[in-house]
Design a protein that fits this description.
It is found in: Cell membrane. It contains 17 helices and no strands. By secondary structure, the chain is mainly α.
């Protein structure tokens, strides 16, 4: 009898927990698709350049269009999630992402490519903010770091698929067929999310968009919040440029191998990312008083690892060495995000966590969007000036171009040191 009584007491809680995980799964799958979209250019570079008769500048445009779309929607994303709730925002996001993917697959020219990727990015931009809001609403505060880390892992699953598996699929079926398939997967997940996500809390109906904007403006008066944005922007732009745009072409160039084979170090990077998110996500819950120092140390370590990928060093030590470095970079990159999200949770109120996440990703998108064309042109110019790899092909990127990439990434890492210093006083006060 007592056992039956216990069942009666605990079953409703269990059902609520199960529903929370189902809802989380639907949004996590959407984030995996969004992450795949973000880092996919590196796996389609060769086919894309052949189809549109373009060079590194065209690839940079492809990457830049996504970053700009992502950026344009970030502040609206935070306001919309905090005002209208997770479910409505996520469903709209999935529709935009799926339709944009299909349009990208069917695009006849670069202008249409830019527009399609912009639509994809505008949809994808809403997902992580909504996922973070869902975690804050559905799970206890002492589990926030862990669950936000696991949420990030869902993105890295998409990142893993975007490396060797996507490169192999592109080789077999072409990049257009692959993105049509991605659009179909997105529509299936849309149906799942519509069922799994529960209606948003009644409290959202009592909020006005104007009230959320005023509260957000007050939060942004603090320099510490901008320090948090600088930290994340530096991390995002550096890691996404290396792992999502130029990683596979760089490794393929270093060792004269196919993009499919060159995807192995990037696959290791994504696996490292997943492990770093889980273990350092757990550590972030325990290291609340040392977040600033942890972020500075992890940024310095990331810079060291990036410098270890200079062409001369990479070629000297070989493919296995490069794979190990990318794995270590993945661990470091994966561990950075839960630390930053823990800072967001401390710097913003629970009601404004969507705005806080959006401020960070807006800064990241602007930084990455501005950087991509500069990086592309700098790599091309350095290769042409050196003359060693561009004798027969003016669009080729050589050792000098990839050395320029590494140098720019190191410069882009510096805000990741300054940002935690700006956050220090407010983090200690809380």
């Amino acid at each position: 009898m007592s056992m039956l009584g216990q069942q009666a007491v605990f079953t409703p809680t269990s059902r609520l927990t199960d529903r929370a995980y189902l809802a989380w799964s639907a949004v996590a799958i959407a984030y995996a698709i969004a992450f795949l979209q973000r880092v996919s250019p590196q796996s389609i570079t060769q086919g894309f350049m052949l189809d549109f008769n373009t060079d590194a500048a065209g690839v940079a445009m492809l990457a830049s269009s996504y970053f700009w779309g992502y950026t344009l929607m970030q502040i609206p994303a935070g306001l919309l999630v905090d005002r209208f709730g997770v479910k409505r925002v996520v469903l709209v996001s999935m529709v935009a992402s799926s339709l944009g993917s299909a349009a990208f697959a069917l695009a006849p020219n670069l202008l249409d490519v830019f527009a399609a990727r912009l639509i994809v990015a505008c949809g994808d931009a809403l997902v992580f903010t909504a996922l973070l809001k869902l975690v804050a609403q559905s799970f206890a505060d002492e589990r926030f770091g862990m669950m936000s880390g696991i949420s990030q892992v869902s993105g890295y699953v998409g990142g893993v698929i975007a490396t060797t598996p996507l490169a192999a699929a592109v080789s077999g079926f072409g990049w257009r067929a692959c993105f049509l398939f991605i659009a179909c997967v997105g529509l299936v997940n849309l149906a799942f999310a519509k069922v799994a996500l529960k209606p948003d809390p009644i409290s959202h109906s009592n909020k006005t968009l104007k009230g959320v904007v005023i509260a957000a403006r007050q939060s942004l008066a603090h320099v510490a919040n901008w320090g948090c944005a600088m930290t994340f922007a530096s991390h995002f732009a550096v890691v996404t440029t290396l792992s999502g745009v130029w990683g596979i072409p760089m490794v393929a160039h270093f060792f004269h191998i196919s993009p499919t084979a060159a995807g192995t170090p990037l696959l290791a990077f994504m696996i490292g990312n997943a492990l770093g998110s889980i273990f350092l996500g757990h550590a972030a819950d325990r290291a609340a008083g040392n977040l600033d120092r942890a972020l500075i140390r992890i940024c310095l370590l990331r810079m060291l690892l990036i410098a270890m990928l200079l062409p001369a060093v990479a070629r000297t030590f070989g493919f296995v060495y490069v794979t190990v470095v990318f794995t270590a970079l993945g661990l470091v990159a994966g561990g950075t995000v839960p630390l930053v999200l823990k800072c967001v949770k401390k710097l913003y109120t629970a009601d404004l966590i969507g705005v806080g996440a959006s401020v960070n990703t807006t800064a990241a998108g602007i930084f990455a969007g501005i950087a991509q064309p500069i990086i592309g042109f700098a790599m091309l110019a350095a290769s042409q000036v050196s003359g060693t790899d561009a004798v027969h092909n003016s669009a080729a990127i050589g050792d000098a171009g990839y050395a320029a990439l590494i140098a720019i990434l190191l410069l882009m890492s510096l805000p990741g040191i300054a940002g935690p210093l700006l956050m220090r006083s407010k983090l200690i006060a809380r």
